[in-house]
Design a protein that fits this description.
Chain A: Pfam families: PadR, Vir_act_alpha_C. The complex is a heterotrimer of chains A (168), B (736) and C (241). Chain A contains seven helices and three strands, in the order αβααββαααα. Chain A has 168 residues and is mostly helical. In chain C, strand 7, helix 6 and strand 8 form a beta-alpha-beta unit. Classes of the chains: A mainly alpha (168), B alpha+beta (736), C alpha/beta (241). The structure holds adenosine-5'-diphosphate and magnesium ion.
């Protein structure tokens, strides 16, 4: 969660609660519920590494409210993250390991494994499609769903390949 | 390159064997029709010339009681290139209850230099008592091969150009192996066939004091050509139509197919064919089919032609021409192949110019989606859905609809022309005045006037005479009617019939030749004395190109010898019986002009029907090919129709409704066009009488076209419709 | 639920021994949306063509609406197609020389609708498919997606028991495919249209209630799919921050 917070702070100083709200606003329904503690833990780690600094703003009768901002080092770190390409998501696949090993050990029918996996992917695709119908113009969500669906379609095609080459 | 062409052409032809076969059949039919037509035409151009050549007809024949020395003198006259002599006497025989004059001649050798009778039936006589009879004489008197009569047994029939057909020329001719008689006939062929008068003068000078009679070949020719004019016109019309048919069939079938190939042409262009290459490929392909089909067609044509040539030869009084002469056959081949090349190249060029992408897209979807006028009409008429689809379908492609309509129209024109010929005959039979014979009966015995007038059934009778008069530009043929001419009214389209001596009527040819109009005065010399006549009308005159003058005999300063008696019967009398009675009373032949025309019609019918049938057959092949192509092209649409629930019968209905819609147009266009063409040809071929005698088929006869066209389209739609109905939808739509 | 289509041992062999279908048993219930998937040449189109009577089985039975139809004559099949089935093809197969309106009204008129009724239905259908303004256009001038929607309207005008669709999105770009799928989904979800649809697009197949995976002329596997609900949303959204 380090880089998302750094990225949010690039827009200007903010305190922890504001950062949480900004995240939720940007990603909307696609983000699982975030708890505030997670944000604060990350922020303090960033502070420890000298990537963010903070000013305490006194609040009457309450603990000081801390406003975080990006340091020079933080800006450099963020620059590196933005500039680097993100590595491909999918180079490990539990199902593939399961399929190869189960087939080698003779503990399952590979065709059945593939069929079950296909059911699961199809069902997932169906649910994604249903969810897509309920995004109500949420572009971020729609894009994310589209990406996921495309991945699932690729997975299904890949299952066809597995079936052809390892299906028996 | 050549290999590529060859492979593509072969693949294309083999890919659609049905269409290839149909194209071949169409070309075959066209070639057949063309051969028959050209053969008929060749016989028609100058039937007499053919017959002259065939029989080595004499240019001049001299009759008289001649010694061998006389004959030698005649043969040695200047300008004579060949001569032949034979004995001849006039005899009489009773045939079919009447006595007829017979000219009996010695049978010439088979290799006689002049006047070889051409045997058309039976054989040459070999033994004494065997006879060869001139064909028209045999037909007229009912003689057949094998019949016996007073002079001997008939063993053969023959045609000759010694004289024109009986009974116009009599006596009838009969040849026997040996004839014993003092009279002789010397036939000569001249260096210059026109120099007959000079020969006659020379002959008279060479044999002074000997009584000589001459027959000039011009006289024979004029009689035969005059007599067969109507028939020649009819044959002419049909041959003209056949030429149309050939061009048309080749055009529709091939153009139709090439147009349907646009998608393939697009593909060829996509792989690098030039438009010229495409044209060359297609032309080569169709020429290959055309050559095979045309050769077969020539053979078939040569086989069929005699069936039509023979009745024609009867009509034209000529020996049956051969259909196997190389020139017409070669001409037919060249014409057919030229048509094939032309009608392939034009649409191929057009198709080659179509944008490649559009051409490739053609298979998938075409058309504008906009209702044609006909489709809108169908909708407005609240026709059932199937009928509306059919109409819409029929007019989807303009070129296709045009081809089909043209094919149908052609058949309607053929039919209308045939009906018009019938109607014309009918009209002339009803009214012999249209033949310039405004009488019911003609008796070739001028002295019999009183006897004829005495017959109970005769209402009016008078005499008629033919004479030569001298007009401002030379000899004119004239006819004069005796007293009582008022009862014999010629057909006078312009002006009126003459009513008193000093008035005259004339045929169109005379008016044209002399630059006169109705109302003008004309002075002619009759036996050296001037007679001035007022031309009060133009009558319909089939003879002598219409250059005939008719007036009352009383206009002449002195009476002329009459040639025959003419009479009208009281209405409702039995004309045939009356004619027989008159023959009995006068001992002369009574001729009913109506019968004469009937006979002519009977002669022409086999030719008319035969060639019309051939034309209709060609049209049918044509139509079938067009419709089949259309259906093939529409296979996808029909498959879709079926996919959305059109039954096989519905598909047939769509095809038929389309055919009927096109047929309706063909009828609407074809009937007036047929009448117009017939009128045009009649006028063109026979300006003097054509327009005046044309018969127009009655509404009922014309209405015949409707069931005919419907039957023809239904017949022609049946095969493609069934194909469309049967083709598997899945297969067609799969071919996408 | 009543089965609308039942096949037993449905077999189709082509000349030359190609066994396109080898004894298929399927049952489609009323209101069900069945997708048929499988590699090219496995017999999907053959199955659909047999169900629509566009082709004849070599062996086996077909029941439609509770009665045997496999022995029907061509003409009776035509009546079945016009009254009870709707066909949608990959390449639209609209009649190029009929306007959009005419194309859509055609099966209605064939089935005996009055011209007025056909017009009204066509108007509603085109409107609901979002192409109401194209009624007078020529199909040749339309985009693929528009043409396919016209084809669907044509298939639906007689309110068929079953809509048979063979790769309806196969010839379309993804945006047009989306539009066409939306139309089919609406027909099924909102009006309970029974659909049998052949596709090789997983996204399209995923919309079905049941997916039949075919291999070599037989159904190899069957997947029942459940409607996604709100609780599954978060489960799917694995966005890690
Ligand atoms: N008319 C035909 N003649 C011969 N073989 C055919 C015909 N139609 C289809 N096939 C064959 O049947 C098999 C199934 O075809 P099809 O049902 O079209 O497959 P798909 O699943 O791709 O739609 C294929 O092997 C195909 O080649
Ligand atoms: Mg398929």
């Amino acid at each position: 969660m380090r880089f998302p917070l750094l990225a949010l702070l690039a827009g200007g100083p903010a305190h922890g609660y504001e950062l949480k709200q900004a995240l939720e606003q940007r990603f909307g329904s696609v983000l699982p519920p975030i708890n505030a503690g997670q944000i604060y833990t990350t922020l303090s780690r960033l502070e420890r590494d000298g990537l963010v600094g903070d000013d305490a703003v006194a609040q009457n009768g309450r603990p000081n409210k801390r406003v975080y901002s990006l340091t020079e080092a933080g800006r450099a770190e963020l620059g590196g993250w933005v500039a680097d390409a993100t590595p491909a998501a999918r180079l490990k696949d539990d199902f593939f390991i399961k399929l190869v090993l189960a087939r080698a050990a003779g503990i399952a029918d590979p065709a059945e494994l593939i069929a079950r996996q296909r059911d699961a992917y199809l069902q997932a695709l169906r649910e994604l499609d249903d969810v897509a119908l309920t995004t109500n113009g949420d572009e971020t969500a729609a894009l994310l769903i589209e990406g996921a669906a495309l991945h699932l379609e690729a997975d299904l095609k890949w299952l066809d390949l597995c079936e052809q080459r390892l299906g028996s | 390159m050549r290999t590529a062409f060859f492979r593509l052409a072969r693949a294309d032809l083999l890919a659609r064997p049905g269409q290839t076969a149909l194209t071949a059949v169409a070309i075959f039919a066209a070639a057949t029709a063309l051969v028959v037509t050209l053969a008929l035409r060749a016989g028609l151009d100058d039937p007499f010339a053919d017959a002259m050549a065939e029989t080595r007809g004499a240019h001049m024949a001299v009759y008289g009681e001649l010694s061998d020395a006389d004959v030698a003198r005649l043969a040695a006259l200047p300008g004579v290139v060949a001569s032949d002599v034979r004995s001849r006497r006039n005899d009489q025989a009773r045939l079919g209850g009447t006595t007829v004059e017979v000219g009996l001649e010695t049978l010439p050798a088979t290799n006689a230099p002049v006047d070889r009778p051409h045997v058309t039936e039976g054989r040459r006589p070999a033994a004494p008592g065997e006879l060869l009879v001139e064909r028209s004489f045999a037909r007229e008197t009912g003689l057949h091969v094998g019949d016996r009569f007073a002079l001997g047994t008939v063993v053969g029939l023959a045609v000759t150009t010694e004289q024109a057909t009986y009974p116009r020329w009599d006596p009838g001719l009969v040849w026997a192996p040996a004839v014993d008689a003092p009279g002789r006939r010397v036939g000569v062929r001249l260096q210059d066939p026109e120099a007959t008068d000079a020969f006659a003068a020379a002959a008279r000078r060479a044999l002074p004091g000997t009584r000589l009679a001459f027959t000039d070949w011009h006289g024979v020719r004029d009689t035969i050509t005059d007599q067969t004019r109507t028939n020649a016109i009819v044959i002419g019309i049909n041959t003209l139509l056949a030429l149309f048919a050939v061009g048309f069939t080749v055009a529709t079938v091939i153009s139709g197919r090439v147009l349907a190939q646009r998608r393939e042409i697009g593909m060829l262009k996509a792989v690098g064919f030039t438009p010229r290459g495409v044209v060359a490929l297609l032309v080569g392909e169709y020429l290959a089919i055309g050559l095979v089909a045309a050769l077969l067609g020539l053979i078939a044509g040569a086989a069929i032609a005699p069936l039509l040539l023979e009745p024609m030869a009867n009509v034209l009084a000529t020996p049956t021409p051969s259909a196997l002469r190389p020139l017409p056959l070669l001409l037919a081949l060249v014409l057919v192949l030229a048509a094939v090349a032309l009608f392939t190249a034009i649409p191929a060029l057009r198709a080659g110019r179509v944008n490649t992408v559009d051409a490739l897209a053609l298979g998938r979807a075409g058309g504008s989606g906009h209702a044609s006028r006909a489709a809108r009409l169908a909708a407005a008429l609240r026709l059932p859905t199937v009928a509306r689809l059919g109409v819409k379908d029929a007019f989807t492609s303009r070129s296709r609809a045009t081809l089909t309509i043209a094919a149908l129209t052609f058949m309607v024109v053929t039919l209308v022309a045939a009906l018009s010929v019938e109607a014309t005959f009918h009209r002339v039979i009803d009214d012999p005045a249209l033949r310039a014979k405004p009488w019911d009966v003609r008796v070739e015995a001028p002295q019999a006037l009183a006897a004829v007038q005495d017959d109970a059934d005769v209402a009016a009778a008078t005499t008629v005479a033919g004479l030569q008069v001298t007009g401002p530009r030379g000899e004119l043929e004239a006819r004069v009617l005796g007293d009582g001419f008022q009862a014999f009214s010629y057909a006078v389209p312009d002006g009126r019939m003459f009513a008193k001596p000093g008035e005259a009527i004339a045929g169109r040819g005379l008016y044209d030749a002399l630059g006169l109009d109705v109302g003008d005065r004309l002075t002619v010399q009759v036996s050296g004395r001037p007679v001035t006549l007022t031309l009060v009308g133009r009558h319909v005159e089939p003879d002598n190109d219409g250059e005939v003058l008719i007036f009352p005999a009383a206009s002449l300063p002195e009476p002329v010898e009459a040639a025959a008696v003419i009479a009208n019967f009281t209405p409702g009398s039995d004309q045939a019986a009356a004619a027989r009675r008159i023959e009995g009373a006068t001992g002369a032949q009574a001729e009913l002009p109506e019968e004469e025309v009937r006979g002519e019609r009977a002669d022409i019918r086999p030719i008319l029907f035969g060639s019309s049938l051939l034309l209709v057959a060609v049209g049918l092949v044509n139509l079938l090919a067009t419709l089949l192509l259309v259906t093939r092209e529409r296979a996808r649409d029909f498959a879709i129709f079926k996919a959305v629930g059109l039954t096989p019968r519905g598909v047939l209905g769509v095809v038929n409704a389309g055919g009927a819609a096109l047929g309706a147009i063909a009828i609407v266009v074809g009937i007036p066009l047929g009448l117009l063409i017939f009128r045009g040809v009649m006028t063109g071929m026979n300006p003097s009488e054509g327009t005046d005698v044309i018969g127009t088929p009655g509404p009922f006869a014309l209405a015949l076209c409707v069931p005919f066209v419907l039957a023809v389209t239904a017949l022609a739609s049946f095969v493609p419709g069934r194909t469309a109905a049967r083709t598997s939808t899945a297969t067609v739509l799969r071919a996408e | 639920m009543e089965p609308v289509i039942v096949t037993r041992g449905l077999t189709r062999e082509y000349e030359g021994g190609v066994r396109a279908l080898a004894g298929i048993d399927v049952s489609v219930e009323e209101g069900e949306f069945v997708a048929v998937t499988g590699p090219s040449g496995c017999g999907k189109s053959t199955l659909l063509n047999l169900l629509g009577g566009l082709d004849r089985p070599t062996a086996g039975e077909i029941e439609l609406g509770g009665r045997r139809v496999d022995g029907f004559s061509e003409a009776r099949w035509a009546h079945v197609r016009r009254d009870e089935l709707g066909f949608v093809f990959q390449f639209f197969n609209l009649i190029g020389n009929l306007s959009v309106a005419d194309n859509v009204e055609l099966p209605g008129l064939l089935a005996g609708l009055s011209a007025r009724e056909a017009r009204v239905r066509r108007g509603e259908l085109l409107e609901s498919l979002g192409i109401g303004e194209l009624a007078d256009a020529s199909p040749t001038r339309l985009s693929g997606g528009q043409q396919q929607r016209v084809a669907i309207a044509r298939a639906l005008i007689n309110r068929p028991k079953v809509l048979l669709a063979d790769e309806p999105t196969g010839a379309l770009d993804s945006a047009s495919a989306r539009e066409v799928m939306a139309v089919l989904r609406e027909a099924h979800d909102e009006r309970g249209q029974t659909i049998v649809l052949v596709t090789h697009d997983a996204r399209v197949a995923a919309r079905a209630d049941r997916v039949l995976a075919m291999r070599d002329g037989a159904v190899a596997h069957e997947t029942r799919l459940e409607q996604g609900d709100a609780t599954s949303v978060s489960r799917l959204m694995q966005l890690e921050v």
